[in-house]
UniProtKB/TrEMBL annotation:
The keyword ATP-binding applies. Keywords: ATP-binding, Nucleotide-binding, Transport. This is Branched-chain amino acid transport system ATP-binding protein. The lineage of its organism: Bacteria, Pseudomonadati, Pseudomonadota, Alphaproteobacteria, Rhodospirillales. GO terms for molecular function: ATP binding. It comes from Inquilinus ginsengisoli. Pfam families: ABC_tran.
Amino acid sequence: MLLALQDLHKAYGSLVVTDGVSLSVTQGEALGVIGPNGAGKTTLFGLITGAVRPDAGSIRLDGQDITALPAAQRCLAGICRSHQIPHPFEKLTVFENLLVGACFGRRMREADAADWCAEVLELTGLLPKANRLGGSLTLLDRKRLELARALATRPRLLLLDEIAGGLTEAECQALVGTVAAIHRGGTTIIWIEHIVHALLAVVGRLTVLNFGRKIAEGEARGVMDLAEVREIYLGSPV
Ligand SMILES: Nc1ncnc2c1ncn2[C@@H]1O[C@H](COP(=O)(O)OP(=O)(O)OP(=O)(O)O)[C@@H](O)[C@H]1O
């Protein structure tokens, strides 16, 4: 098992955001996470990356307890995420943005980092924009850069937070192709996404959260067909 979350709890005051969530991801798997706004999906990524400390429960990577490991150490261990709202280093070029990930997020030597970042630029379609400033990009390219920066850290476990939102259908399809290629390359992925058809093109398994609880999990299309999921998530009782 690559990642195992056991009975995680997190509350902000009286607001319970993560309520006894357990889940496991095997090496090479692609898992989708869906749920209504405020269900606790992004908080789950915070817990996995170390930005958010759980009130109770444990997180294991490769069987090792990393619950108390700081975020930077988890990145070095191979866990990296993208954020829902891209925040590139606006005054650095696209290539430099990636170098930061490779050199500081993974401590690659500069020459290795440059080679790897060139590969990531190619994979994410950003090669023609390598010398553009991060702050000058369109939404699609900012989203690509957000994904590319995470990838630059050479993660074993890549966490994607709503990367398809706000894109046109053609842009969304292009992004799906990129994520599928990353997955085929052997990277384990957990993807939070509201654009369900994009998610289903890549993930084999789905976890559904509602009010901080896991309410369903299993083979992706089977989960989407569950009456409870359709009612809670799609607002359409069957
Ligand atoms: N640092 C914080 N302090 C207080 N409340 C928080 C904090 N972080 C998240 N919350 C609250 O926790 C709840 C879950 O937030 P979270 O962002 O995890 O949900 P989500 O499922 O990712 O939602 P969305 O689909 O809208 O991104 C929300 O009600 C949010 O306002």
